[in-house]
């Protein structure tokens, strides 16, 4: 028995869904506008997760073009029917209802290849899958009670319908099995069906994926209901603990049974720091579950998400210190790399342990396909450096680091060639118009409307064509610096500005994402000609137990 630290997947890994096949567990989560989409992670112990592939990993498999931040791929479910893996998910396009919708992808091997999406003729979000003992497939999901309304502020309901395995089409009548009226709650979401000892259980999130988030459960004698809620609902929430509790927003749970008959839930929650803020976003936590009187009991004896979980046979490695979470240079082969609305291979090419990044006209401020490759910020305290070879960067182009929440909200630290020197600039873009915050006007940044409000700048000799840009996050303070390495050493560090990560979390900005840290290169709408080589290093601070 090992004590394992939560969250088991730190950083933006929301809406987790899990299944077990033999000795292995498989987990998927939401990835919104980032590609490859829907990472498939594998673990022997529910604690150490390795990304083995992605469901959406081919260009053209799904069209994410133009999808705004926090749209895209929402809340997948993963299951195995004894032969194949199934993932069901929703593509949400805030601009175009026609393009989005629910779909299924199939694979013999969780690592892929996954089939092209098979679209389901049913509205709403958070689809899930259930295979009953007769081999029938039941799709269920959540949608607005009044579908004409465009906003998710009204009541939702959970539907169940059979899927014909041969035609892969929904068939038979629809059954509405749950809405908030059953528990005097709002927004039943993330439903998942299970069967235990002949009884059917419906697990659902309620109250939205923020402070009031909760897990509720209902049961029935037949898969199609009627479902009766647990009198103790919600069976897990942190909302009664208040905003000072270090873990908030607990919900969106999925269940799995170990080979030894123990049960666990994976779910999302947020760790607050710097006040009521959670810049890392919604992370995946592990919670033990036992069955009492025919109901699941979450975190028995504790009643809240434990900071440390006892997991039989788990590796003692602290979470976030996975094989793929090793500190240091993150090579292009690392499966955690993502790009925006396109695959990393579309905008960048591996170049040794770094990326060759051709400049693109698209900037970070619009929902285009910028020259961007990035990784989740998985630790509150982290040092990130980007070593840039800018010899091929042209006048009028800029490249550097971005701390990204969305098109509208991000902080950049970039470099541009000017008058035979390199100018380093830090900017903050906040809100729709890119202005948002009063600040001292800096004439050097004026030429780039929408690129953000200036925070600081420096001018550096350009002779070597190499520069290091860095971000040092300590809690919500993010120092932005540069240095110029020489053959004799790393070069002295020069502070450019300090950003506040609270500007960029969803408490401030709205949306569903945690922070990403990436490299980018743009000509801000002008024809692009140059390129850069970037080498990205990620060092969680604070010893062997990352925050
Ligand atoms: C997810 C849904 C939710 O689909 O957030 O508000 C969505 N709740 O369960 C995106 O993570």
TrEMBL record:
PANTHER family: BETA-XYLOSIDASE, BETA-XYLOSIDASE-RELATED. It comes from Isoptericola sediminis. The keyword Plastid does not apply. One of its GO terms (biological process) is carbohydrate metabolic process. Keywords: Glycosidase, Hydrolase. This is Family 43 glycosylhydrolase. InterPro entries: ConA-like_dom_sf (IPR013320), GH43_C2 (IPR041542), Glyco_hydro_43 (IPR006710), Glyco_hydro_beta-prop_sf (IPR023296), Glycosyl_Hydrlase_43 (IPR051795). Belongs to the glycosyl hydrolase 43 family. The active site is at 15 (proton acceptor), 189 (proton donor).
